[in-house]
Amino acid sequence: MLDERFVVLGAAISLVGTSRYVRATLSGRAQPNRVTWACWAVAPLLAFAAEVHEGVGLRSLMTFVIGFSPLLILAASFVNPHAYWRLGPFDVACGVLSLSAVVGWAVTRSGVVAIVFAIGADFIAAVPTVRKTWHHPRTEEPLVFVLGVVNGVITLLTVDHWTTANVAFPAYIVAMGGTLATIVYLRRLPGHVAPRALEADHR
């Protein structure tokens, strides 16, 4: 088991990936789905508040960074008019469902339930980006997902008493980040990559 203070290192590593994604967005190389990234900010910050309420302590820093980082990426998408993904009804529907999960927490007012709802909201919000990444892998910057996984793993390795409040969100981040990073790298292999010109049509 790692010392709890290693969570700070994990957060710093995650922010390196965020800065890479922000630069890619500002240059137009990455095209974030604004519905996903907006909800990815709300859901983890909700989970962060719930973790603080449940006494998770320093380990909740991971969840805060996972929520704060999307805010930076979302803001960057408004700087470059070509650095965002054109939204459709499917994206909007996922956003509405994601926010509905947030409302579910507001009704229950339970810390653990809030974390579960936050994970559900985050997962639903991820669906449009998973879909986009599968068809257009070059519109994503995979390092942010890889380093997010590292952040989650470090956090899990500091846990000495496994409870839902302590491990649920870090474990989910490891699973989702790993899934997205794997999709990007595999779909970029020869024979799987969508032409960049085609991807540009979806901006």
Give the SSE map.
Layout: H1 6-27, H2 34-53, H3 60-77, H4 89-108, H5 111-135, H6 143-157, H7 164-187, H8 196-200
Helix pairs in contact: 1-3, 1-6, 2-3, 2-4, 2-5, 3-7, 4-5, 5-7, 6-7
Short description:
With 203 residues, this protein is an all-alpha fold.
Based on the model shown, name its key terms.
203 residues, mainly alpha, 8 helices, 73% helix, globular, disordered C terminus
Structural notes for this entry:
The protein is mainly alpha-helical and 203 residues long. It has one domain (6-198). 73% of the residues lie in helices and 0% in strands. The chain has 8 helices and no strands. The protein has helices spanning 6-27, 34-53, 60-77, 89-108, 111-135, 143-157, 164-187, 196-200. The longest helix has 25 residues, at 111-135. It is globular. The termini are far apart.
Large-scale geometry: globular
Beta content: under 5%
How much helix, percentage-wise, in residues? over 70%
Largest sheet: none
Which radius of gyration do the C-alpha atoms yield? 17 Å
